Amino acid sequence: MFTSGATEANNLAIKGAARFAGPSPRRRLITAATEHKCVLESLRDLAAEGFDPVILPVTPDGAPNPDALSEALATRTLLVSVMAANNETGFLADIAALSALAHKAGARFHSDLAQAAGKIPIDVNALGIDLASLSGHKLHGPPGIGALYVRHRPRMRLAPLVSGGGQERGLRAGTVPTALAVGFGEACALARAALHDEPARIAALRDRLLTGLRSCIPNLAVNGPLDRRLPGNLSVRFPGVLALDLIAACPRLAVSTGSACTSAEVAPSHVLTALGVPQAEAATTLRLSIGRFTSPADIDNAVHILADAYAALAPAPRKLAKA
Q1: Alpha-carbon distance 258 to 256, whole Å?
Q2: Cβ burial 295-322 (10 Å sphere, 16+ → b, else e)
Q3: Which of 20, 22, 32, 271 could bond 64 through an S-S bridge, CB–CB 3.0 to 4.6 Å?
Q4: How many beta carbons lie within 10 A of that of residue 16, not counting itself?
Q5: Which of 135, 295, 141, 285 has its CA nearest to residue 208?
Q6: Helices 198-216 & 296-313 angle (0-180, nearest 10)
Q7: Do residues 103 and 78 make contact, with C-beta atoms less than 8 angstroms apart?
Q8: How far, in whole angstroms, is CA 214 from its chain's centroid?
Q9: Do residues 211 and 168 lie in contact, with contact meaning Cβ atoms separated by under 8 Å?
Q10: What is the pLDDT of residues 283-305, one digit of tens each?
Q11: For the segment 52-96, what is each residue's pLDDT rounded down to a tens digit?
Q12: Which of 188, 216, 250, 261 is catalytic?
């Protein structure tokens, strides 16, 4: 069904599943500490309604610990929600393994696919996903449109968040914005057609960006593993320089300190905190994203701009006093 974006889709998936279950003995809802804020806040909202939210810690690379999940699933669980690709670090979760654990325990599985869809191949059947959230603008579609995939066999039942007419089989009242829906569909078609070659091209640009930055900036650190991340994501720490100062010094670059949805927050990223990154180092992190329209010249230009800005902002090396 169409939604206004992944935030609404996540809310509908989690709250809709919980509220439809009602007084069911399955009251537990499980997610990971690195999930998008709308997922974490949805679970916190449901705690006030008598549900039992569990937020799992993650390993330093960002993976929910399967043993911790299995332990949490020992209590009768309604739903597990884990994103396929993290929106800050680009980490790719093993969704097939996690959903298998959830299903073995009798729970259903939801995944936020907003970052992954259109960037890597996704098969909801192979991955064992019962509910999946999508966002149009994340794959070059129009903003203000998204979708929620709802499995029909076995049927996934949801309570609507908005009352009204019978649109979207009674699950989302309101007139569907036709123009946005058409644009979203076309963006999906274009992304699917490019999936054969585009991920490798973008990954090569990401590696070019990292190599260029490392040649100019000593001790540059990457958040998360390089071998399990989205092709176009690079989350890096610039030692000794605040990310906000770097952003101010690079007005020609579109970069962020973390999630674009919380770019106005001054507090440290909850994702980096969950990974165990110290607050002082988290404050030096920039998220650099590469997309379909990024060229090698753009990458080289970005390296030049960031390197110059870093050189101007970095503290001067201390000189040893003469004996």
Answers
A1: 5
A2: eeeebeebbebbeebbeeeeeeeeeeee
A3: 32
A4: 24
A5: 295
A6: 30
A7: no
A8: 25
A9: no
A10: 999 999 999 999 999 999 999 99
A11: 999 999 999 999 988 999 999 999 999 999 999 999 999 999 999
A12: 261
The string of pLDDT tens digits covering residues 92-140 is: 999 999 999 999 999 999 999 999 999 999 999 999 999 999 999 999 9
Question: What type of residue is 260?
Answer: A
Strands 146-150, 131-135: pairing is antiparallel
- State how far the Cα of 69 lies from the Cα of 10, in Å rounded to an integer: 20
Q: Which residue shows structure tokens 């004996």?
A: 323
Strand pairing report for 108-112 and 131-135 = parallel
Q: What is the dihedral of CA 172, 177, 182, 188, to 10 degrees?
A: -50
Rounded to the nearest 10 degrees, what angle do helices 37-47 and 6-21 cross at? Answer: 20
CA distances from 85 to 62, 115, 140, 321 (A): 10, 6, 17, 49
Q: d(Cα 84, Cα 309) in Å, to the nearest integer?
A: 34
Pair 246, 238: CB distance under 8 Å: yes
Q: Is 250 a catalytic residue?
A: no
Angstrom CA distances, 151 to 20, 115, 146, stand at 15, 20, 17
Write out the two tokens for 283: 């404050």
CA distances from 176 to 3, 146, 165, 183 (A): 8, 11, 12, 13
- Domains by residue range for the chain, with CATH: 2-192 (3.40.640.10), 198-313 (3.90.1150.10)
Side chain identity, residue 273: T
pTM of the model: 0.92
